[in-house]
Design a protein that fits this description.
The complex is a heterodimer of chains A (about 170) and B (about 260).
Chain A (H helix, E strand, L loop, with lengths): L2 H7 L1 H24 L2 H21 L2 H5 L3 H22 L1 H7 L17 H12 L2 H12 L4 H8 L3 H17 L2
Helix pairs in contact in A: 1-2, 2-3, 2-5, 2-8, 3-5, 5-9, 8-9, 8-10, 9-10
Chain B lengths: L2 H15 L6 H10 L4 E8 L2 E8 L2 E7 L4 H11 L4 E3 L5 H12 L14 H11 L7 E2 H7 L6 H9 L12 E2 L13 H10 L13 E4 L4 E3 L4 H4 L6 E4 L2 H6 L3 E2 L8
Parallel strand pairs in B: 1-4, 5-6, 8-10
Antiparallel strand pairs in B: 1-2, 2-3, 7-8, 7-9
Helix pairs in contact in B: 6-7
Classes of the chains: A mainly alpha (about 170), B alpha/beta (about 260).
């Protein structure tokens, strides 16, 4: 039975399986967009809570017709944007959140076990916002160009160019 | 370009594509936040320590705390069939909901009654509206929910109340004036709770009719708070509704003694 069918038939009974099947992708996308492990966890949790609440209000046909992956990507982008806005508005809170004992190698160093990972986070941080969304959705999250274009509301050609330019920048900046 | 730089470049692009595993707590936290998993903790109730389980939708299960918490866990899993974990003590809205109910203050019930049948839900929601310091017969609950013949079924539904204290099933007593059974530790606890709330447990009269006041011309159930305010000289009894109405009395709007 497809996951969409199960969600439509018994949301409460199948939601755990739904989270399991998408959590790594959503978390990875959130990590590459927020560049912080703590923020990524908050974002991913919020994404699934929002998804659940939305699914509660959807009728059967809408759930059956739902492309869950692009839909979750859309929610993730919204939550990341809201999170950035709140963090910007309350920078003192974020600063206090950091445990001093934790800061020695940088609060997000746990995110970067591998050398490649550390480099990636640095490079993504340097990437302009307009490129980060497309490249993360296409490469880490794994949407097709068409889906990325639809989720971002940009033309497919633009998205392809942005992904390609982002990859070029990531390669060159090593 | 040297080999190290080259490797770092490939690694970081690989890292872009390779997924990070979500933290193990993520799934748990999501399920709790949407009410698909519960937490529990002890809470000191007037009848001794109880375990109370809750989720985002409300208090889902409450039972006397024995020495072995795994007993409560297995009771919860059989009864509620959701994941359960130990919480850091009941959060303030759980404590507030219980305090509010036992002290007779108004406010939302904050009960998660997803596991009960529609009939049981009607019974429990009706019972939740009985004020502290008063009692009602089982038959009154049956009539209030529009099922006047289902008196025994009301008793059974209250026996299976998943959240005693929060849904004050101790305020539903027998129409013969005896207090009846109580699932949370037996009738002794029911007596204690009613006494603490100021119900004159030992003087509960059998509901064989109604009582009224000849100053207000209102008739009540004998366990209504307004009946208790009527002084002996002004107190009149009626065998039934027809007799009360023939004498020009109207039913109390608080305890709704008749349909």
């Amino acid at each position: 039975m497809k996951l969409n069918d199960r969600l439509a038939a018994d949301l409460d009974g199948s939601f755990e399986a739904f989270v399991r099947s998408h959590q790594d992708a959503v978390y990875s996308a959130a990590l590459r967009l927020t560049l912080s492990r703590t923020d990524a966890e908050d974002v991913a949790q919020d994404v699934f809570v929002r998804a659940y609440k939305a699914l509660c209000g959807f009728d059967r046909e809408r759930i059956l017709a739902l492309s869950t992956k692009p839909w979750l990507a859309r929610i993730t982008l919204n939550v990341v944007r809201n999170k950035a806005r709140t963090n910007g508005r309350r920078p003192q809170t974020t600063a206090l959140d950091v445990d001093p004992a934790d800061t020695a190698p940088g609060p997000d160093s746990k995110a970067v076990e591998a050398d490649g990972h550390a480099a990636l986070i640095d490079k993504l941080a340097a990437l302009p916002d307009i490129y980060r969304g497309p490249v993360v959705l296409r490469h880490a999250y794994g949407l097709s160009y068409d889906e990325v274009a639809e989720v971002l509301g940009r033309p497919v050609g633009t998205v392809k160019a942005q992904v390609s330019r982002a990859l070029q920048t990531l390669k060159e900046s090593s | 370009m040297n080999a190290t730089a080259d490797r770092s470049r490939t690694d970081s692009l690989d890292a872009l594509d390779s997924l990070d595993a979500a933290p193990p707590a993520l799934l748990d936290n999501v399920l709790h936040a949407v009410g698909l998993a519960d937490e529990y903790a002890p809470w000191p109730s007037p009848v001794g320590d109880v375990f109370v389980a809750w989720n985002a939708r409300g208090i889902s299960c409450l039972s006397l705390a024995g020495p072995d918490p795994t007993e409560f866990e297995s009771y919860f899993r059989t009864r509620v069939r959701r994941p359960l974990r130990v919480g850091d003590g009941p959060p303030s809205r759980v404590r507030a909901a219980l305090d509010r109910r036992l002290s007779g203050k108004s406010g939302p019930t904050f009960a998660d009654l997803r596991i009960v049948t529609p009939f049981e839900r009607d019974v429990l929601e009706c019972t939740a509206r009985i004020p502290a310091g008063e009692a009602r017969p089982y038959g009154w609950v049956a009539r209030e929910i529009g099922r006047p013949g289902a008196v025994r079924a009301v008793g059974t539904a209250l026996k299976h109340n998943p959240v005693p204290l929060l849904i004050p099933c101790h305020r539903v007593v027998r129409s013969d004036g005896r207090i009846g059974e109580y699932a949370l530790g037996g009738p002794g606890n029911k007596r204690l709770l009613l006494t603490l709330e100021g119900v004159p447990v030992d003087d509960l009269e059998p509901v064989k009719g109604f009582v009224g006041s000849d100053t207000t011309h209102i008739f009540c159930l004998p366990w209504c708070r307004y009946d208790r305010k009527v002084s002996e000289v002004h107190r009149v009894s009626f065998r039934n509704q027809a007799e009360a109405e023939a004498a020009g009395y109207r039913p109390c709007k608080h305890c709704r003694p008749v349909a």
